[in-house]
Design brief:
The protein has helices spanning 3-30, 46-71, 74-79, 84-115, 117-121, 125-148, 162-169, 176-180, 184-199, 214-217, 228-232. With 244 residues, it is mainly alpha-helical. Helix 1 packs parallel to helix 9 (184-199), helix 4 packs antiparallel against helix 6 and helix 6 (125-148) runs antiparallel to helix 9. The protein is globular and about 70 Å long.
Length: 244
């Protein structure tokens, strides 16, 4: 275990968590008006209707796949009757399809943002940097999906290296050796992922933490129609003064 391994896999994860949580709290308290995607549908909707669903549904499946692969131990899926080979097949199929859908979606959104004048004018340097990190994370994720399943290079079971390290971070006992034993492609994907979460609170991606929970508990909106007598009264204009 080298000092660099300790820094990358024993210290940097907690720095990322502090920035993610602290930045989100700060953003919510002091920049609620900026807590938005700054929708540009008014300027262009055709490409948005294609790229946005591809990206959002794709990223949702990707997130679910990461939760299953990183949080659920390998022994649990084996006990449920899912062999390691079958797991890698479904991870390759679902993860590959979702990853490519996410990548195609974000490419369409970037193309739309670059070629639609008003949308491009509303794009900040913050947005451009966010897209660079986001695309890098998606591409690295696709690469590790193909590498992990053995489609490219030698097959690697990340649930024996990356997953134990990920779970150990939250028990405050980081398994640095496991992460250090992972291939460099998985390490690079992890580092890009931590960078993405570190910048998350300070970009438009923060809107992902917003859920309309209050809508479930809001009071009913009561609509009342005007009474027959009110509708039958002649309409008076404001300059005519009050009726006698």
């Amino acid at each position: 275990m080298s000092a660099l391994d300790v820094l990358l896999w024993g210290v940097l994860p907690y720095v990322t968590i502090v920035i993610l949580v602290g930045g989100t709290v700060w953003r919510y308290r002091y920049d609620q008006f900026g807590w938005t995607t700054r929708s540009s549908e008014l300027y262009e909707s055709r490409l948005l209707r294609i790229g946005s669903p591809l990206f959002h549904f794709g990223i949702l499946v990707v997130v679910i796949g990461h939760v299953i692969g990183l949080v659920i131990p390998q022994g649990w899926t084996s006990a449920a009757g899912l062999s390691e080979g079958a797991y890698h097949v479904q991870a390759l199929v679902l993860g590959g399809v979702a990853g490519f859908a996410t990548l195609i979606g974000v490419v369409i959104l970037i193309y739309r943002r670059r070629t639609t004048g008003p949308v491009f004018m509303a794009t900040t340097r913050n947005d451009k940097g966010m897209y660079v990190v986001l695309v890098a994370a998606i591409v690295a994720g696709l690469a590790t999906t193909l590498l992990g399943a053995g489609v490219i290079g030698e097959e690697h079971n990340y649930r024996a290296t990356v997953s134990p390290w990920f779970r150990s971070v939250f028990t405050l006992q980081p398994d640095i050796d496991s992460m250090a034993a992972a291939p460099q492609s998985f390490q690079l994907h992890t580092l890009i992922g931590m960078l993405l979460f570190a910048v998350w609170p300070f970009t438009r991606l923060v809107h992902a933490f917003t859920a309309p929970i209050g809508y479930l508990f809001r009071p009913y909106i009561v609509y009342r129609s005007r009474s027959v007598g009110a509708r039958s009264r002649p309409r008076r204009h404001g300059w005519e003064g009050p009726s006698s």
